[in-house]
Design brief:
about 240 residues, Rossmann fold, six-stranded mixed β-sheet, four-stranded antiparallel β-sheet, 7 helices
Length: about 240
């Protein structure tokens, strides 16, 4: 069973009387344990596709099955419930709460889910150890490097044990050395724990870490295969 199955998905945005199509009949399957990089120039639709995958936006037409559920026509409340149980999100800007220390940031989703504070902190500490930050739980986010903050964000995304991690330009604010450190954590999660990962990036060096590359252009998939089989090796700029 595919973890993600999109069939004929379309998406447009309306501004006043102007309707702008963004996605055109997207068919995409992602199996459990896969590691997919989404690439494409600015305006290609990759960010819109990521929003649809993450149930942050709804497709206009087509079908979306996530973890065996048809989520196509579900309402916003149901989407929020499915998101909380199924998807972990990592963003370029980390999105850590400045007033909370690292351990509290990681534990927060469990507290929202009604887990006791003691159990939430134990689970958070487990995740911090997993990303190599076991000794830094007491620190505040502004006391960490960018790479450390992103690893905290990864730990927080996984604290609810979701089967899917969606990462939107997770290394966009990091230097080359730090990028490799963060990617090593993501690679390990896929390799050793079988976590399914979809990452949006404009860097081919980041995409090469994935098992599979999906390129979009003008709202359509134009390549779907191993990164080593892609003819284009140039870096792209876009979101």
């Amino acid at each position: 069973m595919s973890l993600i199955a999109l069939e004929g998905v379309t998406k447009s945005y309306r501004t006043g009387d102007v309707l702008t199509p963004v996605l055109f009949g997207i068919d995409l399957r992602v199996e459990q344990g896969d590691y997919v990089a989404l690439m494409g120039p600015s305006g290609s639709g990759k960010s819109t596709l990521m929003n649809v995958l993450g149930l942050l936006d709804r497709a206009d037409d087509g079908h979306y099955h996530l973890n065996g559920q048809d989520v196509t026509a579900q309402n916003a409340a149901r989407h929020a419930e499915v998101r909380n149980k199924t998807i972990g999100f990592v963003f370029q800007s980390f999105n850590l709460l400045k007033r909370m220390n690292v351990l509290e940031n990681v534990a927060l989703p469990l507290l929202y889910a009604g887990v006791s504070r003691s159990r939430a902190k134990l689970r958070a500490q487990e995740l911090l150890a997993q990303v190599g930050l076991a000794e830094l739980g007491h620190r505040m986010p502004n006391q960490l490097s960018g790479g450390q903050q992103q690893r905290v964000a990864i730990a927080r995304a996984l604290v609810n044990r979701p089967p899917l991690l969606l990462a939107d330009e997770p290394t966009g604010n990091l230097d080359t050395k730090t990028t490799e450190e963060v990617l090593a954590v993501i690679d390990q999660l896929n390799r050793e724990q079988g976590l399914t990962i979809v990452v949006v990036t404009h860097e081919i060096d980041v995409a090469r870490h994935a098992k599979r590359l999906v390129r979009l252009k003008d709202g359509k998939i134009v390549f779907d295969g191993a990164p080593s089989q892609d003819a284009r090796e140039t870096k792209e700029v876009g979101a």
